[in-house]
Design brief:
This protein is α/β, with parallel strands linked by helices. It is about 35% helix and about 10% strand. Helix 6 links the parallel strand 2 and strand 3. Helix 5 packs parallel to helix 6.
């Protein structure tokens, strides 16, 4: 009887280990997921795991042969190249500003825009985040928004990275097309810059990162919408279909595997209703 019990337990443990390994296998995971695996997936819907060119398999020299020593070298290099912790990137659109004058220097926050930024700063403070980096666009409205937020989250202004790459612009011709005309050169110029910013700030953690990191980026609506599309691998041409309010919070997380998820998209529910805006006033009479 004791032998029979041992046999049953051993067999059960073996089967459990077998099925656990099967569940961990990517192909099996797909079969057991909600994915309709019997239907072909559109190519645009497939996830590119090496979107940031930091998949360990893309960083390590391939196997030269099947010798144990070479396999050990390869596996050791793979392990050294793997990210260990996730990166959180929190994007904040600037507050409402008055589109007056012909230059950026005249585009200051309205009183309502300053209140929006203050509410956002308080919200970020309530989240209890310890910030590893704060990045702000060099445009006046983003700088003013950043300054107000910094007072609430108790972050040293001297440590802020002021970045010209994330200035507002036209990232890519939108689909569906919009009614007003814009020269193709605008998209060529702005798009290259904004794409460079995406590659600078969006990637999985370095292998030596030992804890979760939090980066705050204070920028602009078009840039944030483009970043969201790129990070989630949605068609970038759809950026204009997304609407985000002034001083709203968008939160993206990049896991060690390179998978990207979105926690907040244009969250502004922490503000009183009279402060919710998304369009730019061009007449001082309409400014609160």
């Amino acid at each position: 009887m004791r032998k029979l019990t041992s046999f049953v337990c051993g067999t059960g443990a073996g089967l459990a280990a077998f099925y656990l390994q099967r569940l961990r296998d990517p192909q099996t995971a797909v079969q057991n997921s909600w994915t309709h695996s019997d239907k072909p997936v559109d190519p645009w819907a497939l996830w590119d795991s090496n979107w940031d060119c930091r998949d360990p398999k893309a960083l390590v020299r391939p196997l030269r042969n099947s010798q144990p020593e070479e396999e050990n070298r390869y596996n050791a290099d793979l392990e050294k190249s793997k990210a260990k912790k996730p990166r959180h990137i929190i994007l904040v659109r600037h507050g409402e500003y008055l589109d007056a004058g012909d230059s950026d220097e005249t585009h200051h926050l309205t009183e309502r825009g300053r209140k929006q930024a203050e509410f956002t700063g308080k919200r970020l403070c309530e989240l209890g985040i310890k910030w590893d980096k704060v990045v702000a666009s060099t445009m006046v409205r983003a700088q003013e928004t950043s300054d107000i937020i910094l007072k609430e989250i108790d972050y040293d202004k001297e440590k802020v990275v002021n970045c010209g790459f994330i200035r507002e612009g036209a990232p890519i011709p939108p689909q569906p097309p919009v009614g007003h005309w814009k020269p193709e050169a605008s998209f060529l110029r702005d798009g290259s810059r904004i794409e460079a910013a995406f590659r600078r700030y969006f990637h999985r953690a370095y292998p030596d990162q030992e804890k979760e990191s939090y980066t705050l980026i204070v920028g602009h609506g078009n840039v944030i919408r483009y970043f969201v599309c790129r990070a989630l691998q949605f068609p970038a041409e759809g950026w204009l279909r997304i609407n985000i309010n002034h001083a709203s919070i968008t939160w993206l997380t990049i896991s060690p595997s390179g998978n990207v998820s979105i926690k907040y998209l244009g969250d502004s529910g922490f503000m009183p209703a009279p402060l919710l805006t998304n369009r730019i006033p061009r007449d001082a009479k309409n400014v609160v």
